[in-house]
Write a structure and sequence with these properties.
mainly alpha; about 180 residues
Length: about 180
């Protein structure tokens, strides 16, 4: 977290931390105490790295819930969680490049995100949470592929225009410079 935020903050040690909705109502109280938080993070690390019969996407949803429920940092838990999701998908060889923009989906569906997190905590609704996370991955991947296709089309059109209008300048190497 210190690298991401470029500060010296570490594990949340502030007692009485709560997560509230926009009306100020407490919706969740994460575990308190640095020792407890570190134990829970160690458990999460073991879970992430252990061999499992779980489908990697199901495991990804569970690990994200665990991190968000632990809420180990004063700030940046969501960003850290999304980065870990991408790195885990890369580690499991489900992504070549960790370049899905998961934040957009979560922002657009923020109410549902918090509702699903809370439902796991309060009533054990893992199915709803996992389906939410799978939908997030699917829709984000489809959106990302669409954007990539659009970028590729613009690059090809630009390449063709340069080839036609400036044939003496055109080269594949020039077009591929980024």
């Amino acid at each position: 977290m210190q690298c991401i935020k470029q500060n010296t903050s570490g594990i949340r040690a502030t007692p009485g931390t709560t997560l509230s909705n926009t009306q100020g109502e407490v919706i969740y109280t994460p575990p308190a105490g640095e020792t407890v938080i570190r134990e829970k993070l160690a458990n999460l690390e073991r879970f992430i790295n252990e061999e499992s019969v779980l489908d990697p996407l199901i495991k990804m949803a569970i690990m994200h819930y665990q991190l968000e429920a632990i809420h180990p940092f004063i700030d940046g838990n969501g960003r850290t969680g999304r980065i870990l999701l991408l790195l885990y998908l890369k580690m499991e060889k489900l992504l070549d490049v960790p370049a899905l923009y998961l934040s957009e989906y979560i922002i657009q569906n923020k109410s549902s995100y918090y509702h699903k997190l809370k439902a796991v905590t309060e009533v054990g609704d893992w199915e709803g949470w996992i389906l939410y996370m799978l939908d997030m991955i699917e829709k984000t991947a489809i959106s990302g592929l669409k954007k990539l296709e659009e970028i590729t089309a613009v690059m090809e059109a630009t390449s063709e225009e340069i080839r036609e209008k400036l044939p003496k300048v055109y080269s594949k190497e020039l077009i591929d410079i980024r």
